[in-house]
Records
---
Amino acid sequence: MQSDIIEFARQFKGVTYQWGGASPKGFDCSGYLQYVYNHYSIAIPRTTSQYPKLFGHKVSIKQAKVGDLIVFTGTNPRIKKPGHAGIITGVGEHTLTFLHSSSSKKHFGVTETDYYKSGYPKRFLAVISMPGLN
């Protein structure tokens, strides 16, 4: 099922970022993830601020699997609360990629990012193993 969910999620690459957006007309990060996971009957909260409810399913970044949820702080890494998230699309030695809807001017909208070649490691909070996928 992991490859199915990633294939489904990738079809939205390029969809524009829209704050509060939860459809292919425009997504914010949590709206995008909820849309993708709901397609596979996996319920997740609508906003990243509610993601700590899922933290009972946390795994280490080394245990991350394709389809898992990766959670970051907002743009200020000193505030250790969820503010951004993505879906893991690839894992390997020194490799981790994820899809997300970004509000960054550099990567605006649904995009795929190489975790280790980005600024996200300093904002990392958790990987959440998604029940029903793994």
---
Amino acid sequence: MEVRQCLLNTNEIIVLAICNDQAAGFGCAQYYNSFCYPEPHGEITELFIIEEGRGKGWGSQIICFLEEKLLQIRVKEIKLLTGQDNVRAQKTYQKANYSLSDQVMYEKTVEGS
């Protein structure tokens, strides 16, 4: 019940790739509205394909599905974050027409919350 309730109370889109009745990958995207921006913003937060499925276009299909769902919500810009050394993922994102941004991301872990 906790997973179901979590999914009902979020602005998250989750897609699960199935191959031969087995989970073969997944992707997640989130969207949010802000007082500061006229349109909702979107972000692809997760993309994973099992090793045997990589290089077969499954990641691109998941990205396409997530983009379609975000477009239905009127999202005009989609961001994503990946590691500098994750070359395979970077190629997948570039193939899907994502471009490298010159923005700098800062990160902080807050303890004691």
